Amino acid sequence: MTQAPLGVLLAGGEAVRTGGRPKGLFVLAPGRRVLDAPLAALQATCGQVVVDSADPRVLGALPDLEAILDGTRGIGALGAIRTALAAGAARGADIVLACAWDMPGVSPSLLATLVAMLAADDTADVALPRHAGTLDPLCAAWRTRVLAACDAAIADGTRAAHRWIATVAARPLEGAPLAALGEPERLLMNVNTDDDLAIAARLFAS
Questions:
Q1: By mean pLDDT, which of 8-17, 45-54, 125-134 is the weakest?
Q2: Which pTM does this prediction carry?
């Protein structure tokens, strides 16, 4: 397999809390959408970036990205992880860098650090941020070799991503090393509601 990571922009969520409106397409300021930061960060870090979505509104907004289809919809984050792993394995990538498209504060340095952490440790299966005790599996560098284990967990009825992550070799980026890349609350913010959007617009409009 090649060592160049595949970037996967995760845009397949159902956006229940926004009434089905595609979160990443929300506008923070003229000419700036929520998805622009995670997309730029992935493009700066990966040789190729694809998008996990079947929504025509999403695909229409990202005509230059190849779309991959989530075959495990309805099981949340674990399904998105599985889709990213499968896309990487199909393209011969050893590492997949997956990032949710509703993270307007994510940076190239954060994603590059996750890839470097994983590449430096052959025993690690995933490198991901952990802040305030919470892991973020949708902003993570994954080794595609765990695809079979992910499939097995889904087949066994596992639906909680964090429960499955506890069974693989995870390397968290946390504490001072994470804070050195920026304020964690900003780096890892998700836009899930209209209130979140208002906060993000204040933080990231410029």
A1: 8-17
A2: 0.94
Q: Token pair for residue 71?
A: 């075959």
Token reading at 169: 């070799």
Q: Record the tokens describing residue 8, joined without a space.
A: 């996967």
CA distance 71 to 177: 35
pLDDT of residue 21: 80
Which residue blocks in 68-193 are alpha helix, DSSP H? 77-90, 108-119, 147-155, 161-165, 175-179, 184-187
| C-alpha R_g of the chain | 16
Of 51, 52, 42, 36, nearest to 4 by C-alpha is 42
Q: Provide, rounded to the nearest whole percent, the portion of the chain with pLDDT above 70.
A: 92
Nearest alpha-carbon partner for 190 in 23, 49, 40: 23
- In eight-state DSSP terms, residue 34 is T
* Helix ranges, 91-193 (H): 108-119, 147-155, 161-165, 175-179, 184-187
Render pLDDT for 81-124 as a digit per residue (tens, 0 to 9): 999 999 999 999 999 999 999 999 999 999 999 999 999 999 99
Q: What is the pLDDT of residues 169-202, one digit of tens each?
A: 999 999 999 999 999 999 999 998 889 999 999 9
CA–chain centroid gap for 107, Å, is: 12
Phi-psi region of 182 (alpha: psi -120 to 50; beta: other; left: phi over 0): left
Q: What is the Cβ-side half-sphere exposure of residue 181, based on CA atoms within 13 angstroms?
A: 22
Structural tokens at position 84 = 């990213």
Question: What is the Cα–Cα distance from 136 to 129, expressed in whole angstroms?
Answer: 6
